[in-house]
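hi! just following up on the protien thing from before. the input was this:
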Amino acid sequence: MPIRHAALPDLQEIVSIYNASIPGRMATADLAPVTVAEREPWFADFSPGRRPLWVYCEESEPTPLAWLSLRSFYGRPAYDQTVEVGIYTAPLAQRRGYGRALLNHALQEAPCLGIKTILAFTFGHNAPSLNLFRSAGFAEWGKLPEVARLDDVRRDLVILGKAM
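and the predicted 3d structure came back as:
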C-alpha cells in the first residue's frame, strides 16, 4: 500500500516537502525553512494509534512524496476528539491525487482513532486546498480575515471542518 505510517528516517523528506511549500506562500505561515532538528520534537508527538503522521510513497520507491498529519487541536482535554489536519505534497508530485488519497485514508481511519471532528486551517487564497477539503465534505466553519501577513500582503485564514 502506498500509504504508511511515517518513520524517523522519513523526517528528512517530510521536512524537505514542507520547506518546499514555504516560498509559494500558499500552504504555511512559516516564512523561512525549518530544520530537521527543529522538527524532531514535533515528529515525536505523533503516534500511529492516536495522532498519526502518514506518508504517501509509490510502490517502487520508499521515499515520501506527500504526507498528512493529524494533530491535537488546542491542547485541552475537552477537544480530545478533535484534530487539525495538515497535508503537504512534494512539488514534482502535485496534482497526482496523493493528497486526496491521504485525506481519504485519514477520513476512513478517523473513527478507529476516536476522532469525531477534523479541522483544516487554510489560507483563503489557497484554492487547491480549499477545493480538496470541500470535495471531501468539509464545510467552511469560520474565517479570520487578514490575520496573516505574507510578504506584506494580508491574508485570510479559512477554517474548514468535518464532523465524523
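Strands lie at 3-5, 53-56, 66-72, 82-89, 117-123, 139-150, 153-163.
The CA atoms of residues 22 and 28 lie 6 Å apart.
cheers
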